[in-house]
């Protein structure tokens, strides 16, 4: 699997940084010019996205419609959200988005 990781830099304006990532065991040395990044443990809401051209719709849904319907959860704007691309992406274009949440 590979990952796309987004860190919110300004929640008011929606600005964020995006990092492309691949898993690497801790005992392996980092390739030159790259940095190690560990996703924090936490609670994430997951949704499947059928095709890459629907990614904007999926994020809009999760960050507006879905979260508005949740009484027990709120967005965790301090934690990164991420996309997970596995073999399904290569076969059909499907991938998953994970949005960090906290219990209210």
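Sequence proposed for the structure above (104 residues):
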């Amino acid at each position: 699997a590979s990952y796309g990781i987004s860190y919110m830099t300004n929640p008011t304006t929606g600005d964020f940084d995006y990092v492309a990532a691949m898993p690497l065991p801790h005992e392996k040395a980092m390739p030159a010019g790259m940095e190690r990044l560990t996703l924090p443990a936490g609670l994430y809401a997951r949704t499947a996205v059928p095709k890459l051209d629907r990614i904007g719709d999926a994020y809009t849904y999760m960050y507006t419609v879905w979260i508005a319907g949740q009484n027990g959860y709120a967005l965790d704007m301090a934690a990164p959200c991420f996309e997970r691309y596995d073999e399904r992406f290569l076969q059909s274009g499907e991938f998953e988005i994970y949005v960090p949440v906290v219990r209210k």
